[in-house]
Predict the structure.
Amino acid sequence: MPRPTTNPEGGAAPLSERHARRAAMLVRMAMPVLCLAMALLWLLPGQFGRSPWKADEGYTFGVVYSMLADGHWLVPTLAGEPFMEKPPLVYWLGAGFADALRGVLPLHEGARMASVACAVAAFGFTWLAAREIDRDDGPPCAPLILAGCPAWLYASRFLVCDVGLLAFQAVAAYGLLRLLRRGDAIGAAWLATGLGAAFMTKGFVSPAANGIGLLLLGADARFRSVLTRRNLAVFVLAAAPWFAAWPAALAWTSPQLLGQWFWVDNVGRFLGLNDLSPSKSWRLLLEAPLLLSPALPVALLAAAQRGRAMLASPARGAWAMVAGWALVLGASAQVRSVYFLPMLVPLALLAGRCRRPAADPSAADPPVIAGQAAGPATGRAMIALAILGLAALAALDRIPSSMVRRADLRIVLESGAQPGLIAAAVVALAAFLVLRGRLASLRSPAVTWAVCLTVWWAAFVGTFERGLERTTGFAEPYTELARLLPRDGCVASIGLGESERGLLHYYAGLETIRIERAPQTAATCRYLLRQHRGSGPATEGADRWPRLLGSFARPGDTALRFDLLANR
């Protein structure tokens, strides 16, 4: 006889309904697990199993290591020399994490956890800021849009000050939007804290950009109405320790270093009075829309949909921040791609205002109808792209190294993958696809794009990180170099870059005397460490140090070499 679909007592629900309820319960239980897995896949791949890389992470960790090894906490120091490029907040964070995790992680990986903490803070405060724009529009998707920005995903792998700057931009955004919505002193305090922490991370660039944004908001009577004496007093009291404590302590210790930091590393960089950073390339400004994608185009779409409503809401604060950053970066003489990162926070907040598909298409305006028609197709295209990306990684990993001419690429292909990380990415994508079919909330383009990008990134790291570490990191050549270094006596150097100096101090325990900085003292050293580019012979220092003891390079690197020479 066929199995009955109802309980014989007649009062129980049909088996199909009980199965449906059980399936729904399993889906609800699986959602937190999937969210946690995706968060870990976004945050952790690329943080472990590698040394600090150029360009910025090498010198950043070099300063952190000097703090831990020599106790240089007030004056940032790189391989024995004051390094006044940036205030020390991110260095302090890196040193704190490295010291707390000492014995659990290598120092450089422990320090890198500061970037993980900054990323978590960035997402948390972006979520809080998005809630201040519209509390009645469902869960905010601004953090998902931020997570789906490839520039932010890549930059957050590194211990660099720009990661902290983005996090503190999120803090400032939350404070400003809360101030605009509620007009309370708590918003003023968070705004001051975000700007002050950003100042202690990278100097005046963030306070200047956000200050211009606040001046633009000053034309709005609604903003002026929240600038009460109480709020202004709270702002000043909350900002004063950030802006005054470290400069005052530095001025007490060394007024010369304070002047160098202010005039050379802040004003000089902005006006282009030195060559400490590359000059602004207009090509980079033209590439800015790509660096800010997908937050920028979605924010523009949101403006086209509800521009007037956004200007009447706290979202106008995010627009002011975008305008302030655009004006400062446009006026600065020296700009690099990482300088655009803080703009992602207000852009993600604005992009989160992009309308969801309307329930009644006949009542929707054209942008919403287009979005409603393209939504499912867009999601399917993203999933197909992610699957093709995973297949492409698998195909690249199976290319015979004998078919590759470049030595560094051969090493990358021969170094092996991390199958556990790749399997985790594939399983996470499969679980997402299963749950996506059952939950409409997971079919949002923002969710789908963030998940697909996260999975592909984790698989990419699992496939190529080991090989990239060998060809990009300095652990191998510096460990080999350390075997030949003298146990006593000074070593001069010429041509050493900032990251190379910091990592040489870390791996070899060596602080060289640079010919560029102290030529007379360096001339008394018996040994010379020379960094040079190109495959041809180098002649710098050969007249005083004629004897070549050894030459070192990263595996497969024919462009950058290190020579150790002696004068007898």
Residues 84-351 form one domain. The beta strands are 77-78, 81-82, 491-494, 513-514, 527-533, 547-552, 560-566. The first strand starts at residue 77 and ends at 78.
